[in-house]
Structures are given as C-alpha cells and as structure tokens.
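Sequence, please.
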C-alpha cells in the first residue's frame, strides 16, 4: 500500500491484528498499547488526538510534528507492541494465540512470530470537519460493534477524555479545537 506523508498533517490510522484475533478483550493486552503510544508520542514527536482500541484492531488520530513519518511511527509501534503482546501471551499461557502468531510468522518467512497485519490504513485529515467526523466514527465504534450500549461504558477510547476530561488511561492532545 502506498502512503503519502505531508509534513504537519493529521492522520487517521487503522491497525489490525493478524487474523483478527480478539487480543484486546483483556486489560493485560491493552496496557502495552497504552504504554507504547505514550512512549512513542514523546520519542517520535506526535500528538494523539483520538483513539479506540477494539478487540482486534485500533483506530488512531495522530498529528506528527517531529522528524518521524507515520511509517516510522507505525513500524516502531507495531514492532514494540508485538514483542510485548507475545510476552503477555506467554505469561498467560495463551497457547492458541501463540500458535497463531508463530504460524503467521512462518508464513511470512521474515520472523518467528507475527502479531499485526503487514500494513496499516491511513487517511490524511485536511479539514476540521473531517477530523470531527473521524473522531466521532472512532468513538462510536464500540457501540456499532455491540460491545456496549452506552459509550461511557467503553474504557478503551478517547471518548471519556473528551466528554468527561478523564485522562486516567492516556492523555489526549485536545488543543486542536
């Protein structure tokens, strides 16, 4: 997939677990995502404007302002989280997941394990209207998927940051509006 990088642009990203395994139904598998986002936002200089962590994928709205491109950010984020997620699966003895990671890795011939799909989907965000549209889509994702009846009940989303000013899980950069 070809990606366009425009300096100073906001990106809407979708990153999917290989074979759509439902890893993110357990908090112990969600924590590495938060840790990585928080680490790389400072190391690679990007703002997090919104997110949702679904059982088998995540959506992010990020705004790089440093030298790192979206490709750099995604490469490092996926590499680091894959190691952490595999380690967590080992600790929790999730043999089925470990076998699927290994089969996926062998299938590529590039590594012993594979957690994420090879690529990611990105859309450039050019207008505030489009940004709000993507943020709304991101926040409503758990509702559409039938995971909750009320968005207040879904913990792994920036919805609570925006509506309740709750930054307990991760700080969201809300200085864009």
């Amino acid at each position: 997939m070809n990606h366009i990088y425009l300096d100073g642009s906001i990106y809407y990203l979708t990153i999917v677990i290989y074979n759509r395994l439902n890893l993110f139904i357990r908090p112990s598998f969600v924590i590495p995502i938060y840790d990585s986002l928080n680490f790389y936002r400072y190391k690679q200089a990007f703002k997090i404007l919104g997110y949702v962590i679904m059982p088998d994928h995540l959506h992010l709205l990020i705004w790089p302002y440093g030298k790192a491109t979206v490709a750099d950010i995604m490469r490092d984020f996926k590499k680091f989280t894959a190691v952490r997620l595999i380690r967590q699966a080992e600790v929790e003895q999730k043999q089925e997941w470990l076998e699927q990671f290994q089969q996926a890795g062998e299938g590529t011939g590039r590594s012993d394990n594979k957690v994420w799909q090879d690529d990611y989907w990105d859309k450039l965000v050019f207008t505030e209207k489009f940004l709000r549209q993507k943020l709304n889509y991101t926040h409503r994702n758990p509702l559409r998927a039938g995971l909750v009846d009320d968005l207040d009940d879904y913990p792994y989303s920036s919805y609570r940051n925006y509506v309740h000013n709750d930054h307990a899980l991760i700080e969201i950069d809300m200085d864009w509006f």
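The chain has five helices and four strands.
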